[in-house]
């Protein structure tokens, strides 16, 4: 009788250890998944902010160039101004690449491209003041539309009450 009790005690201990291991493993995987999601969320926030800022700076410099050409001719060093514009355009493109790498939503990519295209339309110095103003408004709205769309993709950080990840160990479309 004591042997049976000892076997039952050993089996109970093993079963308890096994169940504890399974639950600890699931808890660890859940914590790692939440941490991964939060890192991705933070990277997206950084990329989207950097892109919006790059677009804004590129847009600002294009408008500045228009005024330098039309309202203050000869006062600006145009070659250095053009170099700065091309540098800012390169930064905007680099930031777009980062956005494209971090998003899985084609709609957000389209918003990003639309914003860059709208800003690039300010590039011509042959624009009239009315055309410039219209394109300034269009480009500003395009940047704002990108930021609004991006805000929906970063949402709330994962935390208590946001539910478990769908499948631990599998990639989700975060």
TrEMBL record:
Residues 153-174 are annotated as: Disordered. This is Secreted protein. It comes from Streptomyces glaucosporus.
